[in-house]
Amino acid sequence: GVTPLADTNKSDHYYYQILVFTGQRTNAGTDSKVYFVLSGDSDQTQVRLFADPHRKIFQRGGINSFIIAVPKSLGLLNYIRIWHDNSGEGSSASWFLKYIIVRDLQTLDKSYFISQQWFAVEKDDGRIERTLPIASEAEMQEFSYVLSKKAYHSISDGHLWFSIFSRPPSNKFTRVQRCTSCFVLLFTSMLINIMYYDLSNEANASSETHNGALSIGPFYIAPQQ
């Protein structure tokens, strides 16, 4: 689902949706608190905390959707500064962020911020804070990015079984509906197998009885004939 951020000021009425994509790598998810500042030509947000009181966020392979409200349009977006406090225990402290999509809910314009990096003191450059500039057309067309995005979408939304666990939050085909479809498919397959099980046994028995005879409907021709 989509989570409105709890620290939103009720007097703010300009809305953005932020989609955060966590990587599929081992220990890519985090339990640390993640903060951000979104900046545009006209303004920037205060330091905001990504939080959801009802479910865990930023789990491995997850897509989390948030709604933030600001007093006015930020203008053309320039960058998002994002970091975590490294408060997660053990391997849950680090985080691998794939990319972020910010959508202006008034104009429906989308902005992409590509990371594909660890936020971890023990990995790569050891940084847990990064400033991600808005992706250029060249970056968005990069083969690795496009391939990764398409592959993830194919598995998370196009594959019926996998999509039960990784359904995109904006998709109206719910997890319950997907799960129901899977069980219907499974039981239909089992029913068909049961229906043809006896026919298969009868065919084998008939074959043994006729000892290699050629069967045509109710008639058969033995090799001796």
From TrEMBL:
Instruction: Output a single Gene Ontology CC term carried by this record.
Output: membrane
Organism field: Adineta steineri
Q: Which family does it belong to?
A: Belongs to the polycystin family.
| UniProt cross-references to SUPFAM superfamilies, sorted A to Z | Lipase/lipooxygenase domain (PLAT/LH2 domain)
Q: Which GO terms describe its molecular function?
A: calcium channel activity
Name this protein carries in UniProt: PLAT domain-containing protein
Please list the GO biological process terms of this entry: detection of mechanical stimulus
Per its UniProt entry, which superkingdom is the organism in? Eukaryota
Xref: Pfam families: PLAT
Q: Which PROSITE patterns would you find in this protein's record?
A: PLAT
Q: Which residues form the PLAT domain?
A: 14-133
**Record-linked PANTHER family:** POLYCYSTIN FAMILY MEMBER, REJ DOMAIN-CONTAINING PROTEIN
